[in-house]
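@here heads up, posting the sequence + SMILES for the S-adenosylmethionine run so it's all in one place. Ping me if the SMILES looks off, I pulled it from an old spreadsheet.
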Amino acid sequence: MVTVPARTDPTRDWDSDYHAPALVDDVVELLGTGTLVLDGTLGGGGHSAALLSAGVARVIGIDRDPDALAAATARLSPAAAAGQFEAHQGNYAALDNIPALHALRFNGILLDLGISSHQIDDAGRGFSFREGAPLDMRMGADAPRTAADILNEADEGELATLFRNYGDEPRAGRLAREIVRRRDTRPFVTSDDLVGAIRASFGSRSGAPEFARLFQAVRIAVNDELAGLERALPDLRDRLAPGGLLAIIAYHSGEDRLVKHAFRAWSEDCTCPPKHPMCTCGGNHSLGTVITRRALTASAGETAHNPRARSARLRAWQRAR
Ligand SMILES: C[S@@+](CC[C@H](N)C(=O)[O-])C[C@H]1O[C@@H](n2cnc3c(N)ncnc32)[C@H](O)[C@@H]1O
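bot reply: prediction finished. Complex structure tokens:
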């Protein structure tokens, strides 16, 4: 039997005041024929709404952020009433802590990484570098340290590693030194304190692109985003039913690299040369197949409408049947 790819309803727009989801058509084409889908980064529920509308029988959404659960639950209340949708607060990197998910296997799992527009727009959450914002940046109360905690307490080496690894900052040591020097006289409290340290380190010509990149680096550390994703990947793979599909949208090169390498490693058979008398590679055997040979990206039309989609890279992997 040929499976006809699911399509979104072209008359529907999946954006909401909460968030405009990226690559919805691709997500629906990949996951829209599943019966039970886990949306591990529910946000405003845009992808979940599109999947339900395409015919997915049941979607379970999780998010670290209670605001996301409230927005998506309100939006999807008709589906919830019909038993097709439920939402739980939690971390996709700790699925075992969500009792409702115990023993479930999914036909599809979606991660749409990073933060939602709502989180950026809510000045009190401190995700943006707009003036006077508190240095918080926690996606949920499960994150143990705020951005201010890290900037005030981490040693110079940890700060330099953070800006180098998560912010691709070649002059990370200079910025770390400046932060440590400044906090000796006054603790970091608001976005202005971090902007001031960046300006002092890199000159007054540093502007929005540097602030965005370096604030994002701090956010990644606050929420343990890269290490959390790395830990989560094998667990998510093992939550797939045979033939199930894992689709991940990344917006940061480090995340995309982790996903690409994991999908490739899970798909490899023994890599020893054919004439090798015995296996020395550890006896890999393929657990499934990479579905997207190259990451899928947004069209010019989509990025014109939703600039945030410009950096979205979607990769998918299918578990063997
Ligand atoms: C880009 S938004 C998702 C938007 C969503 N796809 C939509 O259509 O509205 C990312 C969401 O993932 C959540 N999130 C990020 N990391 C998470 C994690 N480790 N566990 C659960 N939720 C997470 C954030 O709080 C945010 O709401």
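MO: The chain is about 40% helix and 15% strand.
MO: One more: The first strand starts at residue 36 and ends at 39.
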